[in-house]
């Protein structure tokens, strides 16, 4: 067997109150795409951060081509040929694409030693075109979409000519087409002899792109193997120690009376003439490709953005929210897509994050009835979502990516809404928790809550929704009832192949 490029032995990392990595082993060869698999909080991102010099290990050995290495910072790791695209975006929004890509490894003019911006811009242009990205290198990163930022980060990794490229959930913000482009590039990297460490919660991706895998559970090494000799079930067993029923929960809809009516809702440049009814106990799927305007529609319903046309009513009374507080007062809760930015206060404890929207209910004469009711409430919500953390007093920042998502779900679901809007609720969540979230959403619906579910995962929409509204570039292109639902029909509306537009 080929010798390993990177060999990790007995690696341990202890954070206050938590053993994030416990005697971990990992061996990656050149020319291989290696999947790192494990539940939320298993230790994957921590391992990545140690390999790239962000964290220092508590103990253990890391060898690159047989030589022990130890990095004090990310630049040293870069120089040794290890680069990562981290789970959280790590770019500078106020700088241009070129400046971000060449941060830390500027090109200088050979004679004058001055920064050669012309060369860097030109190289950036080439990198972007390799990725089939239509972005001007001078664009400020803050003006890019989430997906574009991700692709730029990947371009940056490519510009560094690394030997080991690590991708921590790189596809979570990408559309189908962009994922294809990414996979094409991953294959090119592998064929040119580089090693790729690939982290994903999506089994379809692991089976499509990865050759080999290593599984972690609770910070411990569980096992490794060849992807093509393993089944999804084998890997899930290793991940969580049992199999998981990935079937969508059976739920019989008892669609009640109309609760929300939307008529001709429009917002310049985002969406136009959106009309639908939403009933108690119903799960309305909202499908579309990235850029279809789904998030913009629900932001307007939740009072974050203002509509400039159309009308809404809740329970027959006019509804014209000026801000999210208005929406919450009328019984709406929204779990946003960009949870890191919009859903959490990272430097606040889990307790405070979860109880935030409930403060008025937990207050008595203006004071939070400290301790008991808040604590009981938070623990109930947290346990329901199986949040894994050292305790509820720790800052949200210290949680793994998937566990941060669970905190946001716990926070909004606890508000006991009449209308629950979920924007990509299972993105970045492991298989077991995903099944739990699906079950929970169905339970809410059977209690009479009206649910709007945005998802880019076709199986999720088809498995969960009673009715699906499909959008394409800001326009509603179709409504499909559960009995007529098929992946093919949804996709045809999403790419607008179907001419006639139906209304609810
Ligand atoms: N800076 C930190 N301080 C304290 N604890 C931390 C810190 N970073 C991570 N942890 C803890 O270490 C454990 C492993 O987290 P890690 O982010 O590596 O998980 P992960 O496998 O990447 O999960 P996910 O799939 O959710 O992204 C978690 O329990 C997390 O709370
Ligand atoms: Mg992670």
CATH class of the largest domain, named Alpha Beta
Number of helices: 18
Give the tally of structural domains.
3
Derived from helix and strand composition plus strand pairing, the structural class reads: alpha/beta
What is the helix content? 25-40%
Which residue ranges are poorly predicted, with pLDDT under 50 across at least 5 consecutive positions?
Answer: none
The overall average pLDDT, rounded, is 88
Give me the CATH architecture of the largest domain, please.
3-Layer(aba) Sandwich
Ligands and ions found: adenosine-5'-triphosphate, magnesium ion
Question: Ends: how far apart?
Answer: 60 Å
Question: Could you characterize what this model shows?
Answer:
By secondary structure, the protein is α/β, with parallel strands linked by helices. The protein has 3 domains: 6-240, Rossmann fold (3-Layer(aba) Sandwich); 244-331 and 419-504, Rossmann fold (3-Layer(aba) Sandwich), CATH 3.40.50.300; 346-416, no CATH class. The protein is 33% helix and 25% strand. Strands 6-7-8-3-9-10 form a 6-stranded mixed β-sheet, sandwiched between helices. A 6-stranded mixed β-sheet has the order 16-19-20-13-21-22, sandwiched between helices. Strands 2-1-4-5 form a 4-stranded antiparallel β-sheet, covered by helices on one side. A hairpin with a 2-residue loop joins strand 17 and strand 18 (367-368). Helix 4 packs across helix 5. It starts with 5 loop residues before the first strand and ends in a 10-residue tail after the last helix. The site of adenosine-5'-triphosphate (ATP) has 20 residues, from strand 2, helix 1 and helix 15.
